[in-house]
Design brief:
By secondary structure, this protein is α/β, with parallel strands linked by helices. Helices cover about 25% and strands about 20% of the residues. The strands form 6 sheets. Strands 1, 2, 3, 4, 5, 14, 15 and 16 form an 8-stranded mixed β-sheet that branches. The chain binds 2-acetamido-2-deoxy-beta-D-glucopyranose (3 copies). Keywords: Membrane, Transmembrane, Transmembrane helix.
Length: about 950
């Protein structure tokens, strides 16, 4: 797609690719010079420089377009082949090759040798010896995942001050910087991302600068050299200063650009400043390029008089190369205003952008994007991560579908853990992106956009042996690699064994979102989200596949109905179930003439889900202080104003209703949320609220004003852990003041739970001891819940024995030191943290981190469900039924967070296995109605 760019201006000689022809031209250029020398008067004699040949070669090289050598496809081994790697035969695979626009699927074998895919399909291997055989038994196989937007190695896990190499703050335009210079070879995330199938990543500088520097493409596997450079895929020849072969086509380079909020805010400037920084930098590069072109047109014409030295500048050479069309520009750019500015810039300076990244508003302006110079940039974006800042406020989950023609990729590791890049593709697919394009979006599309599609992104004979063997269709929620090959080397020590149901072996059927898609465009990303009340008092749900209800006595979720033939019926009158089960059981109710009938097509009815862990309900736009409640005073770090000192802050006082994240949560089955005040050691008191209520005075808006008392103990606090624990001990032993003392008294008396946000196993151990100590002093048991609790699995037994509950993230990541000992789950470990805790009888809930992900709670549950099911029978403990999985985000959270009045809403989904169908209605006993979505 980039073949058109990079041609020299009309004055330049024609573009040459074939080596003999190039040789011939250089030969004739020299001959021409020689002729000048011989035929012209003596004065010319001094002017032919001694290095004329080198200059001519250098000038010729300027106009070569990047790409592989012409004989690349006939290579016999990969330049990344590791000697001693055994050939591997993957037998009996269902191969998604990426060919035919992502529609080709081959049933057959794949042979990997010399770091390459040697054969695909049906073939005879009799001539080979010592072949490793992996029987895929029909499993799906795809190319390795290509991550076009990564900060792997430069923004390493765990985060430490000694390793923050994402951004330089030495100026707005720094095209001379190279991400490679910060590429840490010990980032914990390489191994994790590989376990999610990521084999190649484009490591970009961050977005603090307009021009942050050059990006480098790496393969993620460990290397024998253990060096940063050894990870590179096709680095530019000029990288280490070795002599550049003037006849060889250069390799594609990559560069980061950013517009909008980030560069503006970092430099306390505005969009105008950023845009000027771009223009100033590009103008500098343009002047150098024009000098070079003028110089070279003379040199190539043999006009040596007064020519002098070749004009160049090491600082600007990379940006000059952008103007020559030899660099893939990756442009972090969200809003229409910024996209417009960049499109203008490309036309002013005549360069192309490979992709707009993040680009949350791109779906509103496809025609504008098509006006970019050269070719329309691809659009790389998140699937559902949005609204975290103004630039993302109008983001739509339907953007990938709307932009489908423009290609897309979906990541920003570690902003989103790239281990789960395939999950982004799954969500894009759920929201309407066709399966072939969804798979391409994380494989062949990014490979093409990065100029690497001659070797990665598809399964073709002669391509790099980067292959994933999946345990289900890769677009099925919870898909996990059984094995990942990079350069033909198996990356998982042991292939992962799991048994997924047949239903997971094909691309999921996705709901119809045509109406929502039209509204996203019509309302520029802000469609109304309020549900509509069913007009009839009686609603009949037909073709119900399963029904789950909370048992008021046990507070557990029970599966009360399950039918493989999906012939269940639920009749609701004024928001109450009057009859449920088989048709025959509900005959009288079914005949109600005024009833509204809804066909669930095998879907489920289950208790309204609860969201916990993010500031949902306390903010509209997380990074905009003026749109939210803000942070509480931290008594350990700053002086609390005397007027408020001694008061425990209540989230209920700061609740905001009608936030888009809450409403999107509601539309996805999350009917209530529990939120605590944000920040500090002593966070305050959490509240339970409805995600659909219009304001605090509406019926049922605040479900429970006070739920639990929350504190945080962290190694990342600037106050010592010992100080934090000592403070907590003092507060529990009655040393607090006023209201705070009263609240801790309630905790000690067992009236409300104490929720401690803690990740480190060492902190958790201290908390378990503190609990004992306080209980011994007070004589009553404390209800302690650990939130975050990333390392809790290390103490699962002790936590279980102490009767302490735990709320964890479904997909852990070692963001900080105190979270580094995660239990990663499949395929790296057979068991997950949730399963390990459940095995010790710990009551477990799941939490989210950011408000936008409340809407994905159903997916989180389905994910747990798929994992638990696939390993059931393989491990003796930790097996959860469907009802128990639902409880993780409903009744368990209520127990763990001190909710007394259980939420009675019920969610009805249409289609889909488990909980991943589309929510079509919420049954609300409180409002005596059914809300239609
Ligand atoms: C491929 O695997 C499937 C599923 O295990 C099996 O039914 C089929 O017989 C296998 N085919 C061959 C050629 O081994
Ligand atoms: C310099 O880079 C070239 C091209 O990538 C490579 O072949 C060569 O080995 C490198 N030299 C050193 C000293 O790293
Ligand atoms: C968990 O609880 C069950 C039922 O009460 C009991 O049989 C089992 O031993 C317990 N497991 C552990 C590890 O405590």
């Amino acid at each position: 797609m980039d073949k058109k760019v990079g041609l020299p201006s009309v004055k330049q000689p024609p573009k040459i690719r074939v080596r003999p022809l190039q040789l011939a031209i250089v030969f004739f250029a020299i001959l021409y010079s020689l002729a000048n020398f011989l035929l012209w008067p003596k004065s010319r004699l001094e002017t032919l420089p001694i290095n004329a040949q080198a200059i001519v070669a250098q000038c010729r090289a300027l106009y070569l377009t990047p790409g592989p050598p012409d004989d690349f496809q006939s290579r016999m081994h990969s330049d990344r082949f590791v000697k001693g790697t055994k050939p591997t035969l993957i037998r009996n695979a269902t191969i998604w090759t990426g060919l035919d626009d992502g529609n080709e699927v081959i049933q057959g074998d794949i042979f990997l040798d010399k770091g390459l895919v040697k054969k695909v399909g049906t073939f005879d291997l009799r001539s080979y010896r010592g072949v490793e055989v992996l029987d895929a038994a029909g499993a799906w196989v795809s190319p390795g995942i290509v991550d076009m937007h990564s900060h792997l190695g430069v923004d390493s896990a765990p985060e430490l001050n000694g390793a923050s190499d994402t951004n330089s703050l030495k100026g707005l335009a720094l095209p001379w910087l190279r991400s490679l210079d910060g590429l840490n070879t010990h980032d914990e995330a390489y191994r994790l991302s590989i376990s999610g199938g990521v084999t190649t990543a484009n490591v970009l500088p961050g977005s603090a600068d307009a021009i942050g520097g050059q990006a480098f493409v790496i393969k993620l596997r460990p290397t024998a050299e253990r060096s940063s450079s050894a990870m590179l895929l096709e680095p530019p020849f000029s990288l280490n200063g070795t002599h550049v072969d003037a006849f060889q086509r250069p390799r594609w380079r990559q560069m980061k650009h950013a517009c909008g909020e980030n560069p503006s805010s970092v430099y306390a400037g505005t969009r105008m400043d950023t845009q000027w920084a771009f223009r100033q930098a590009y103008n500098t590069a343009r002047i150098i390029k024009e000098k070079q072109d003028a110089y070279c047109s003379k040199a190539l014409a043999g006009q040596w008089t007064g020519l002098g030295d070749f004009p160049e500048d090491l600082q600007w050479e990379a940006l000059v190369d952008v103007l020559r069309g030899r660099v893939k520009v990756h442009n972090h750019c969200y809003e229409d205003v910024d996209i417009d500015g960049m499109v203008r810039l490309t036309n002013e300076f005549k360069f192309s952008i490979a992709a707009f990244h993040h680009a949350h508003e791109a779906y509103m302006v496809p025609d504008l994007i098509k006006k970019a110079y050269g070719h329309p940039p691809a659009v790389a974006m998140f699937a559902t991560s949005a609204r975290y800042k103004r630039e993302a406020y109008r983001g739509s989950e339907f953007a990938p579908r709307i932009l489908a023609d423009n290609g897309l990729d979906v990541s920003d590791h570690p902003v989103l853990n790239s281990r789960h890049l395939i999950y982004e593709a799954q969500q894009a697919h759920y929201f309407g992106l066709p399966a072939n394009l969804a798979l391409a979006s994380v494989t062949s599309t990014p490979a093409r956009v990065m100029g690497q599609d001659h070797r990665i992104g598809r399964i073709i004979e002669g391509f790099d042996a980067d292959i994933i063997v999946w345990d289900s269709h890769p677009l099925a929620l919870g898909a996990a690699p059984k094995q990942v090959f990079i350069d033909g080397i198996a990356q998982l020590e042991k292939p992962y064994t799991s048994v997924k149901p047949k239903s997971a072996q094909h691309a999921p059927t996705t709901p119809n979102f045509d109406k929502e898609i039209a509204e996203a465009i019509k309302y520029e990303g802000l469609p109304p989200l309020e549900p509509e009340k069913a007009k009839s008092d009686v609603v009949v749900f037909r073709n119900v596949g399963s029904i789950f209800l909370k048992n008021p006595a046990t507070r557990l979720v029970d599966e009360v109905f399950m039918s493989a033939s999906a012939d269940g019926v639920v009749v609701v009158e004024k928001g109450q179930i009057v009859c449920s089960g088989t048709q025959t059981a509900c005959l009288t109710a079914l005949s109600r003439s005024e009833a509204l009938h809804l066909n669930l097509e095998g879907g489920s009815i289950f208790p309204g889900l609860i969201s916990y862990g993010s500031p949902l309900g306390l903010t509209h736009i997380a990074s905009e202080p003026s749109t939210g409640d803000g942070s509480v005073f931290d008594p350990l770090r700053s002086q609390v104003p005397p007027i408020i000192d001694g008061t425990a802050i209540k989230a209920a006082d700061g609740l905001l209703f009608g936030t888009r994240d809450a409403l999107l949560g509601y539309r996805s089955g999350v009917t209530s949320a529990i939120t605590s005040p944000d920040g500090g050691f002593l966070m305050g008191l959490s509240s339970v609220f409805s995600t659909v209520a219009a304001n605090k005075l509406a019926d049922g808006a605040v479900i429970q004003e006070l739920a639990a008392l929350h504190v945080a103990v962290s190694l990342s606090s600037r106050v010592s852990v010992s100080t934090q624990i000592a403070t907590l001990r003092g507060l529990l032993l009655g040393e607090g003041k006023d209201d705070i003392s009263r609240r801790f008294g309630d905790v000690v008396a067992g009236k409300i739970p104490l929720v401690v946000h803690a990740d480190s196993a060492d902190v958790i151990a201290s908390l378990l001891l503190l609990k004992k100590e306080v209980e011994a002093a007070a004589g009553t048991p404390i209800r302690l819940t650990l939130a975050g609790a990333t390392e809790a699995h290390l103490l699962a037994k002790e936590i279980g024995q102490a009767g302490v509950g735990v709320i964890v993230h479904q997909r852990p990541f070692p963001t900080t030191w105190e979270e580094r000992r995660i239990l990663p789950g499949p395929p790296l470990t057979q068991t997950s943290a949730i399963a390990a805790l459940v095995a010790h009888n710990v009551t477990v809930g799941i939490s989210i981190e950011e408000p936008w992900s409340a809407r994905n709670t159903r997916f989180d549950l389905a994910w747990v469900m798929h994992h638990i099911r696939s390993t059931a029978g393989l491990e003796s403990n930790g097996a959860l039924g469907r009802a128990e999985v639902l409880a993780l985000a409903s009744s368990n959270l209520e127990t763990l967070l001190g909710v007394e009045e259980s939420n009675t809403d019920l969610v009805a989904t249409r289609g889909g296995v488990d909980f991943d169908g589309k929510v079509v209605a919420i049954i609300s006993p409180l409002s005596e109605s059914v809300n239609l979505i």
